[in-house]
# Entry
Amino acid sequence: MPTHEPHAAPSSDVAFTPTVKAIQREKGSRRAYARQEEAGGWPDRVTPDLAAFLANQTSAFLATVNAEGQPYIQHRGGPPGFIKVVDARTLGFADFSGNRQYVTLGNLRDNPKAHLFLIDYRTRQRIKIWGTAEAVEGDDDLVRRLMPEGYAARPERAILLRIAAFDVNCPKHIPQRFDAAEVAAALAERDETIRVLREDLERLRGR
# Structure
């Protein structure tokens, strides 16, 4: 359950601005979200379910915004669990070398507010995480702790995201898709089953 200071604004206020709440009233959904806010809003720290979800993810989208308010979304990927839990309120990952545009780094220097969007097509689940992000340069120990073991990539720095709130969406409209490696493994298992059944059939025919 989320924890909050007495009379503190609910954590969901990070997304539900006064304008958003006004539109919710116009559209008829404000009452349901108001009840949620009375309980403190969304979780604001890592839960066991969030940690388990992150441990299986190979892809994420990091949103930042520059000083002029122009948003930018950058994909980040790696082996399962490349986004790690640093502490109860902080996530982190090694930032691998890329095309050297450094748009995300520039945005974070102007504005630390960030959003991490994760979607698991296999389970049809998505999680939205609001917070503030920091690019940590020159901390080799932190990078080593965040670097996926045996992964062939060159880390340049660490990115830390301090969680303000997160929300779990329903699976509606999420198409179910599977990773190529998962499909290949399932097909290999099917082919092996067919091979064994054929051998059994040939033995029965021989009798």
Residues 156 and 180 are 28 Å apart (CA to CA). The longest strand covers residues 155-169. Residues 178-207 form one domain. Confidence is low (pLDDT under 50) at residues 1-6.
